[in-house]
Amino acid sequence: MYNFDEIISRKGTNCVKHDALMRFFGTDDLLPMWVADMDFRSPDFVMDALRKRLDHEVLGYAAPSQSYWHTVQAWLRNHYHIECQEEELHFIPGIVAGIAFVLQSLSQPGDGILLTTPVYPPFLNLPSFAQRRLECSPLKAVDGRFEIDFADLEERAKRCKWMILSNPHTPGGTVWGEEVLRRIADICYRNGVRVIADEIHADMTLPPLRHVSFSTVSSQAKEISITFIAPSKTFNIAGLSSSVCYCPNEQLRRDFYGYLDGFELANGNIFAFEGAEAAFKYGEGWLAEMLDYLRGNVLFLQQYLAEHMPQVKVVLPEASYLAWLDFSALGLTHTELKHAIYHQAKVALNDGTTFGGDAYRCCFRINLGCPQATLKEALDRIAQALQ
User: Fold this and answer.
1) Could you give the CA distance from residue 113 to residue 132 in angstroms, rounded to a whole number?
2) Any residues with CB less than 8 A from the CB of 73 and at least 6 apart, and which?
3) What 3 state SS string does 244-280 have?
4) Contact (Cβ atoms closer than 8 angstroms) between residue 214 and residue 225
5) 142-181 per-position pLDDT tens digit
6) Dihedral of CA 384/373/366/29: which sign?
7) ∠ CA(67), CA(71), CA(77), 5° rounding?
8) At CA 194, angle to CA 188 and CA 196, rounded to 5?
9) Which of 54, 131, 212, 353 is surrounded by the most beta carbons within 10 Å?
10) By the 8 A CB rule, do 283 and 43 touch?
11) What is the DSSP letter of 4?
12) Phi and psi dihedrals of 111, rounded to 5?
């Protein structure tokens, strides 16, 4: 039913991916494969819901309806096996903001915040801005996927109060299985570490793999965790800033939700509620088709690299549309790689150093959430520049 091969120009729509190229790269003539949203048309049922709401021409203050909450609960139950009450949920205007609110309200300056790197850059930046101390446990790339160094993780957990867990992982798209998550929960529980579980890419897990929500793997995990989910990546509606927090621990919930409500930080807006409800209510078919197309892009990337750039190592996503490329075998410096990719190939990729420092100076993240013709053009440009 849906045409994911359609090329849609996004220039001039105030989108970061295209219209902020000059600010971040110093030029605006790059093929943008960086910001983590998709170039696919947002689903028709979401757009229809927004248009219908606009027919009532009063855009006053809005609150989530019972229908909204019932739809969210059904999605959590059907997709994550989370059975929850409405009072355990809270609207959040974006997951990065939600994590910032947790750190500000439930931790103290100087507290250790545990992360596994490479990781989504805001997860590194937020603790620093909040004057918290980073403890970064490097992941190991093994057979094309990331794995956790549990000995290192446990040692660092002894010095931490919170862990920010990317589940599924970004930038690698690695799906953490139930056993891995249970080990993380055990380490954190024994060391008094609470867990912020970012599960924004959960619904983009590529079959036959399945997403396991951190809170469901054990009673300890449920007790120590705050989980964030959102329809934004899944249905390409990030501009609506619509996310949900799930917190089953009553004391954590009282403290955190009280902070949000007391400072009026998470009231939401009309379109965030309308768009999310439509996505969760009608999105199963669209999601299945999109994941099938995305799986094709992942296979295309794998085959292209094997044929045209065999020295480039890749962590292929098991979830989401983000792949991690390692160019270190080419023997080029960080500066030389950036020059080749940005100035010769004219392709915008995310610089690996922003995901964890100099250890990733030869790595870049590429966005596969686009028509396959766009992906091919980007790879052709990079291959030609590297030659």
Assistant:
1) 7
2) 84, 86, 89
3) EEECCCHHHHHHHHHHHHHCCCCCCCHHHHHHHHHHH
4) yes
5) 988 999 999 999 999 999 999 999 999 999 999 999 999 9
6) positive
7) 145
8) 115
9) 212
10) yes
11) T
12) -60, 145
CB-CB contact of 261 with 64 (8 Å): no
Contacts of 49 (CB under 8 A, 6+ apart): 274, 275, 277, 278
Asked if residues 33 and 370 have their Cβ atoms less than 8 Å apart, the reply is yes
Phi (first) and psi of residue 378, to 5 degrees: -60, -45
Do 366 and 322 contact (CB within 8 A), yes or no? yes
Instruction: Tell me the Cα Rg of the chain.
Output: 21
**Strands of 270-319, DSSP E:** 313-315
Query: Angle, nearest 10°, between helix axes 284-308 and 372-386?
Result: 20
Per-residue pLDDT reduced to its tens digit, 71-110: 999 999 999 999 999 999 999 999 999 999 999 999 999 9
User: Cβ atoms within 10 A of the Cβ of 178, count?
Assistant: 14
pLDDT value for 323: 97
Q: Among 128, 113, 127, 88, which Cα is nearest to 229's? A: 88
Q: Is the pTM of this model over 0.90?
A: yes
The answer to whether the bond into 317 is cis (omega within 30° of 0) is no
In angstroms, the CA 114 to CA 120 distance is 13
Residue 278 to residue 297: CA distance in whole angstroms: 27
User: Mind listing the pLDDT tens digit for each residue in 100-126?
Assistant: 999 999 999 999 999 999 999 999 999
SS3 350: strand
The letter for the amino acid at 344 is Q
Name the 3-class secondary structure at 225: strand
Report whether pLDDT(1) > 90: no
The two tokens of residue 247 are 């917190």
Q: Omega before 208 cis (within 30°)? A: yes
With vertex at residue 56, the alpha carbon angle to CA 55 and CA 60, rounded to the nearest 5 degrees, is 135
Give percent of the chain above pLDDT 90.
98
Measured between alpha carbons, how far is 155 from 357 in angstroms, rounded to an integer? 21
d(C-alpha 46, C-alpha 237), whole Å: 9
How many whole angstroms separate alpha carbon 299 and alpha carbon 313? 14
Q: Find out whether 94 and 241 touch, Cβ atoms under 8 Å.
A: yes
